[in-house]
Specification:
Distance between the termini: 17 Å
Radius of gyration: 16 Å
Length: 118
C-alpha cells in the first residue's frame, strides 16, 4: 500500500482509538496497520511517525490554543526550556512520532517474519 495511504490509515484509526482507549492504543494501531498492509520496506518508520505525530500535534495545538498556553508554559519552565507554547506542541509531536515510527518498524518486522518477504 502507498505510504500516504498508510499514514492516513494510521492517523484516522489511531485518532479514533484514542478517543475511547488509552494513549498507547496508537502504538497498537501503527503496529497492526504496518503488519497487515505494509510493504516491509524502508518507509515503515515514516508511516507510523507521521501517522501519529500529525494528529498529536494538531490535538495538542488545539488544547494549547484554547487554554492560552498556561499548562505548556508551566511544564516548559519546570524543564528550564523557553516558555513558548508551540515548543510543547512540537515536543509532543516528536515523542508521538518516534513511538509510532518504532511501532510501525516492529509491525514491518512481524510481517517479514511471517510472510518471508525479506
Amino acid at each position: 500500500m502507498n505510504l500516504a495511504l498508510r499514514i492516513i490509515l494510521v492517523a484516522l484509526l489511531g485518532s479514533i482509538a484514542q478517543f475511547y482507549l488509552p494513549w498507547w492504543s496508537a502504538v497498537i494501531i501503527a503496529l497492526t496497520v504496518e503488519a497487515i498492509v505494509g510493504k516491509g520496506n524502508s518507509t515503515a518508520f515514516f508511516s507510523g511517525f507521521y501517522g501519529i505525530a500529525i494528529p498529536w500535534m494538531v490535538l495538542s495545538g488545539y488544547i494549547d490554543f484554547h487554554n492560552q498556553s498556561i499548562l505548556s508554559v508551566q511544564i516548559l519552565e519546570m524543564f528550564k526550556l523557553p516558555p513558548y507554547g508551540f515548543v510543547m506542541v512540537v515536543v509532543t509531536g516528536l515523542l508521538g512520532g518516534l513511538i509510532g515510527g518504532f511501532a510501525s518498524v516492529v509491525g514491518s518486522w512481524i510481517r517479514q517474519a511471517i510472510t518471508k518477504d525479506g
